[in-house]
Amino acid sequence: MSALQVPLTLSEALSGITGSISLAAWIFLLVPQLVENYKQASADGISLTFLAVWFIGDITNLAGALWAQLVPTVIALAIYFCFADLILISQCVYYNFRNARRQSKHSEAAVEPAQQPLLGRRDSENLGLPGSRRRSSTASRRHRDGLDRPDGPSDHDEPAASEWKKNTLSILAICLAGAAGWAVAWATGVWRPVPLDQDASSGEMALGAQILGYISAVCYLGARLPQIYKNWREKSCEGLSLLFFLLSLLGNLTYGMGILFHSVEKEYFLKNLPWLIGSLGTMVEDVAIFFQFRIYGDKSKSAAV
Question: Could you tell me the keywords of this UniProt record (predicted)?
């Protein structure tokens, strides 16, 4: 039976819709973190080890997809991931290098010459000493967060509601865009359900491609651990975009659902097991990061979890 003769069942429609939503989530995944880094003019919040391991996972994913001769959309998306990773990594390296140079120049400028008058030195001490600078930044942060005002906690209600609304609308927009994209693809004949016997007749995946798939899954599972450790060590999620991890959760969830809605037969399941492990397994770690946002993240972002 050809693909054009396969009836559109509910499970196949759900498989196509969730797969399309996953595609939309992956396309926009890194944008929130890129914007957050740009707004902060810093990349201190995100772990470069996290990004590096994730990049290795995307490289092995691309190699496995090419080796297994997967559909062109999967290969194109894998290539897009690699380029997007490089953009985010380059931005983080740039901000880290630039801010490190500025910090070094500031420290050098804070060193006082021996002939400087004591009266002028007193003012410099207030500006240059690490302790006073830390207290100043802490005080400004407390003032910004409303901790030094009696009505501070109530002042967070509006930013928290705004953050919650922005994230909710963003997720809904991604879901609607993915569903609309699938509907257009179905109406124009670009997407058609694939019969299960065609999946079975496609042959077993090459061993090398399967190995690369499992390496990619291990990288995806291990990538978030440095970020979780960094958040725990610093007791902060400042500089991280909550929407970035929400889109990751949405993309992984809908990707796994798209596979399972299509079929749960043993042969098909085992063939896609590496990708299922890489997508569904990382959801546990995403939930751990959401918990960190909740306990010591920014108040406006924590309330939106």
Answer: Membrane, Transmembrane, Transmembrane helix
Phi/psi of residue 117, nearest 5 degrees: -60, 150
DSSP 67-108: HHT--HHHHHHHHHHHHHHHHHHHHHHHHHHHHHHHHHHHHH
Q: Are the CB atoms for 284 and 220 separated by under 8 Å?
A: no
Rg (CA), the chain: 24
Answer yes or no: are the C-beta atoms of 261 and 18 closer than 8 Å.
yes
The secondary structure element, H or E, covering residue 300 is helix 299-302
Residue environment code for 247-272, b if the CB has 16+ CB neighbours within 10 A, otherwise e = bbbbbbbbbbbbbbbbbeeeebeebb
Using an 8 Å Cβ cutoff, are 298 and 162 in contact? no
Structure-token pair, residue 205: 């995946």
pLDDT of residue 131: 40
What pLDDT sits at residue 75?
Answer: 80
pTM, full prediction: 0.77
